[in-house]
Design a protein that fits this description.
single chain, 312 residues, alpha/beta, Udp-n-acetylmuramoylalanyl-d-glutamate--2,6- Diaminopimelate Ligase, Chain: A, domain 1, Rossmann fold, 2 domains, five-stranded mixed sheet, 19 strands, ATP binding
Amino acid sequence: MADSVSVSELVKKIRLDVYSGKEFLKERNVTVSDISRPGLELTNYFKFYPHERVQLFGQTEISYAKDMMSTDDRRDIFNRMAMSDTPAFVISRGLPIPAELMEASKNNQVPILGSNLPTSRLLSNMTNYLESHLAERESVHGELMEIYGLGVLITGDSGIGKSETALDLIKRGHRLIADDRVDVYQQDEQTLVGEAPKILQHLLEIRGVGIIDVMNLFGAGAVRGHTDINLIVHLQNWDKETQFDRLGNGETFRKFFDVEIPKITVPVRVGRNLGDIIEAAAMNFRARNMGYDATKVFDDNLNELIRDNSKK
């Protein structure tokens, strides 16, 4: 988990314009993902002022400051808002910047940034970026692939063939997100996202061959930076003493943070084509999410057969 994101990085990623305080961008850091719309503060109510947040001014805030506040009020309020840990002021829609806000920015070394985007879209873009970079992370040993549009996390003991299976899936047209180590974080109450550590992006290690650059060998369409994790496929060495699910009705989950991800366990034996099996697992998972459950169909067929035999 990153403790903070520099304002200069926020400017770069969200493509913000810098109106004032360019020299302070690297010194200012964002430590929380929430964005403040300072409506109450403009009325001089500072009891719960979230000064550690990025302060976003839209049409409402700028119009109120212009039409309802005196010059002295604007000067006083904006200077009170520009605290030592306030990351930046951001103006949406390309709106004009009040002279008193520009003055407070220079006096207190708080940058003023801007964008032509509507306020709601700019708010969403900044929140999504900050949430993904400030979220708590967990490192998982495995492969993360995008298969038929689903994020599939392949786990298993070291040496069981995860990377070789990932290579097979890449050759079938699926996309690699991360090999060996996957950084996962919770995006919201229902979404878990996985990505590769920066040092391992687009790289795949194959025992006996070494490290290969997947994007260089297979093209940009063979890789992706991140994806939601929808399904976990755990590879486990076959053991006649172990009971594996045969009907698909023994659903299990693995919990990351507050999100539970469905998990299936696939036994590994010589001669089994894991690429075929994982593709089938992904397609079956998608079908179930669309309302078709083959296990339920089998149960219904079995019950119908039992009823027919009972009548005879």
